[in-house]
Amino acid sequence: MEPAGAYGAGKAGSVSFDPVAFFTHPRTILRLMSWVFSMVVFSCIVNEGYINIGSERLLCVFNNNADACNYGVTVGVACFLGSIFFLILDIYFPTMSSVKDRRRAVLLDLVFSGLASFLWFVGFCFLANQWQLTSPDELPLAQGSDAARATIAFCFFSILTWVCMLTSVYSHSCCVFSGLSVSAGHEHV
């Protein structure tokens, strides 16, 4: 086994990509779950989160509050794109030889995971509250109600995955910032 460089960094280009190790790593599984949950949230709102009753004007199923639908779609798309970005960063992280770049990558991941956890918590509370205030008379034939319930459920699941990812990244950041070598199986962000 070759000695690792500063902050667990290998020599540039010395680490080959192992797809099996990458996709079975817990942090990668959490990122993929977060990616799927984000996609479910924004796709449920976009596909069935709006109804039109007797007019062409679309109304949000969450108490006719367009802000609720907009918030869910915005956070869902942002976390969807963030998950993709950090999956790609995880692939390239073992080949980063610059200590500054490794620190920035881990710090960016830490900040994004914390922000995403907070935004999903706010979204869960906001959407659940707006759904509670929605009267059955506003939704003829319970149109969009399954999508609304799925959106709320997957907002909650997203809180769990992003908090787990935050703790995982935090434990990794302790290794990176303290100068400890990162073991071969846990080299990506």
UniProtKB/TrEMBL annotation:
Residues 22-174 form the MARVEL domain. One of its GO terms (cellular component) is synaptic vesicle membrane. Keywords: Membrane, Transmembrane, Transmembrane helix. It is a multi-pass membrane protein. It is found in: Membrane. The chain crosses the membrane at residues 32-51, 71-93, 105-131, 151-170. Belongs to the synaptogyrin family. The keyword Membrane applies. This is Synaptogyrin 3. Its main location: membrane. InterPro entries: Marvel (IPR008253), Synaptogyrin (IPR016579). It holds the Pfam family MARVEL. It comes from Stegastes partitus (bicolor damselfish).
